[in-house]
Amino acid sequence: MNYFSSDFKLGILGGGQLGKMLLYNTRKFDITTFVLDPNEEAPAKLACNTFIKGDLLNYDDVYNFGKQVDLITIEIENVNLDALEQLEKEGKKVYPSPKTLRKIQNKATQKLFYQDNHLPTAPFSRFAFLSEVEDAIKNGGIELPFVWKSAQFGYDGNGVKIVRTVGDLKDLPKGECIAEQLVPFKNELAVIVARNASGKVKTYPVVEMEFHPEANQVEYVICPARIALNIQQKAQEIALKTSEAYNHVGLLAVELFLTQEDDILINEVAPRPHNSGHQTIEASFTCQFEQHMRAILDLPLGSTENKVASVMVNLVGAEGYTGNVVYKNIETIMSLDGVTPHIYGKRETRPFRKMGHVTIINKEVDKDRAIAQTVKEQIKVIAG
Amino acid sequence: MNYFSSDFKLGILGGGQLGKMLLYNTRKFDITTFVLDPNEEAPAKLACNTFIKGDLLNYDDVYNFGKQVDLITIEIENVNLDALEQLEKEGKKVYPSPKTLRKIQNKATQKLFYQDNHLPTAPFSRFAFLSEVEDAIKNGGIELPFVWKSAQFGYDGNGVKIVRTVGDLKDLPKGECIAEQLVPFKNELAVIVARNASGKVKTYPVVEMEFHPEANQVEYVICPARIALNIQQKAQEIALKTSEAYNHVGLLAVELFLTQEDDILINEVAPRPHNSGHQTIEASFTCQFEQHMRAILDLPLGSTENKVASVMVNLVGAEGYTGNVVYKNIETIMSLDGVTPHIYGKRETRPFRKMGHVTIINKEVDKDRAIAQTVKEQIKVIAG
Predict the structure, then answer these.
(1) I need a surface site. Which of A77, A134, B86, B299 has the fewest CB within 10 A?
(2) Could you tell me the EC number(s) of this protein (chains A, B) (predicted)?
């Protein structure tokens, strides 16, 4: 199929900031795009050819959307898989496939998949209801403290909580969840693997993630990770094994823990462009969004090498501010070397809401990290 | 004014491929954009908030468009300047200013401006009508051969012709023109200068241009230029002087000749993002489109340093093909190291029509140039 012709139609499920950044790269290739999103004001709405409002979890909305296009991809995992399976049966290309998405969408299933495939991950127990967790604590089935994770629809720190006392369970959702052993780790890492429809694979350099203590959101993404080369290689090997096990098409972002003993454990995966790859826009030979396009269109994959070192800073709403967003001191940070802000276009800010990100690029990663600190201290996402 | 708010409205005159690439960067900053273009199918239509169909040279179309926005910029010089002057009188920001545009839009005026400001340029004569040129040749006022340039609306090799015999004048437009001395030059160079509203200035590295012999279109843009450092500095100094003379806001692309005697002469300028800066998207710390945005919004200018060396190849329609475009062997070139195609989205190809460009990036410029050769040999923009 000639993708570089107006006959070909690409459908994207989800029109958030990932979809928006993906669309810039579809424009570069002049690909005709359809976007499905429940939000009439979705960030991606502007850069697509046809925007359709609909529920990503509703069978009919997803099925009817898919019927209009030739190839369907996603910017978010929480979509109706029955509809995607039906579309695949009817000959539509769906990347990542619903088969892959089923193994990822539910976090309990995801963890069991690692076990079944002998992929390293922290010990855990799966529970159908939160009440069972309480019983398990009482009868010694699991020990405190542990990490509670909702099996469904967790993102941006929602759906994850460290449980130190039975009381901590109080306000949690009642449904299916896992209790994961709290592993003391040195570092959180991530590796993005790209795989095209023909099975060609490329692995991005390892990034290091610094998390915000309260919000449990990534605060800095540092590339390359400041860890020993052999550990970087180990992380890439495990990411590659994970990618092989899923046999996905498109990107797979693999989030990893580096333990005190320098073991590497898989935290979770996302089969799409990912927050841990935003710095590739400025820093990599091939940005993750172009790479995802190359992969799902079965084009040759681009080089995953770095042009420069980088640090990505998430722009999240400051505590104590809700309302029309103002990016205080954005001019100040733009005067710093190698700094580019990316504003996602959400009108309303609230504490810890992801409003954008800032990329800092330089020849040396330490210089990036120092400037990133200043960026973090200077810019304030407030309401006004 | 807070540009990073939905209240601010940016107007762009022209919705071609330059406007389209400029818009990606407005999206990055979440700026609300209006685009005016005569073509209902303009490439930039997709990425703007509001598209208005209209004639860029019609007073009312430009004036009524400008009234709806806060700041007006251009992607093409050939716009109605009376309307822009009126809008400026009424307090709208117009960057570049109509005052600057008047000095550039007409090529005869542009050449006289260089003379008046002691900026080096090839000797020339200005003529109100083509007939006067013929007379001047006959009475020895100008010598053959010389370069004929239309004073109005020349671009992409249109409006420029080397005249070797009186017969060569036959098919030329009859209006105002200049006859420029044919200067034997080693090389064509270009330097882009960015100037923000506060007068802060930054200069990009010198690029070297290789032209297609027949089409008189840029075939390769090579950055950094493979010339001696002192000549690079000289070219940057002249570009900077030219920028100061125009006192423009936004980008100024300065095209230069390097003569056999290593003198540098100004060929022409463009007060906007330019074909000689496309490689900055992949290769520079700050791409020309983001830099133009920073300049007109009076934000701090970004670094103009290279991350990597680059070569840009124009994708033009192959001779002998007219009709629905097909990019033959695009998969082949995408398998080469550091190659990214940019497809402009024009449906119809014709000989030498600009259909897109390809950027090749690498650590060494010679490797880029070698790969660019392969790209040029492999890809064919044909009809099918």
Answers:
(1) A134
(2) 6.3.4.18
The CATH fold of domain B9-94: Rossmann fold (3.40.50)
- A357 dihedral zone (left: phi>0; alpha: psi -120 to 50; beta): beta
CATH of segment(s) B123-181: 3.30.1490.20
**CB-closest option in A49, A294, A326 to B2:** A326
- Alpha helices, DSSP H, located in chain A: 17-28, 59-67, 81-89, 98-105, 107-116, 130-138, 229-246, 280-283, 288-296, 330-334, 365-378
Yes or no, beta carbons of A338 and B285 under 8 Å apart: yes
Residue of A nearest to B305 (CA): A338
Interface size, chain A vs chain B, as Cβ–Cβ contacts under 8 Å: 92
Burial label, B118 (beta-carbon count in 10 A; 0-12, 13-18, 19+): exposed
Q: Is B164 on the interface with A (CB under 8 A)?
A: no
SS3 sequence of B236-276: HHHHHHHHHHHCCCEEEEEEEEEECCCCEEEEEEECCCCHH
Determine, for residues B49 and A46 on separate chains, whether the beta-carbon distance falls below 8 Å: yes
The answer to whether domain A185-383 has CATH 3.10.105.10 is no
The domain locations on chain B are 9-94, 123-181, 185-383
Cβ separation A343–B30 shorter than 8 A? yes
Calpha distance A354→A216 (Å, rounded): 12
Phi, psi of B71 (to 5 degrees): -140, 140
Inter-chain touch B49–A49, beta carbons under 8 Å? no
pLDDT of residue A3: 72
For A207-249, the pLDDT digits (tens) are: 999 877 776 667 899 999 999 999 999 999 999 999 999 999 9
Binding residues of B: 107, 149, 180-183, 188, 267-268
Q: Nearest residue on chain A to B301, judged by CA atoms?
A: A335
Predicted confidence (pLDDT) per residue in A312-324, tens digit: 999 999 999 999 9
pTM of the model: 0.94
ipTM above threshold 0.85 = yes
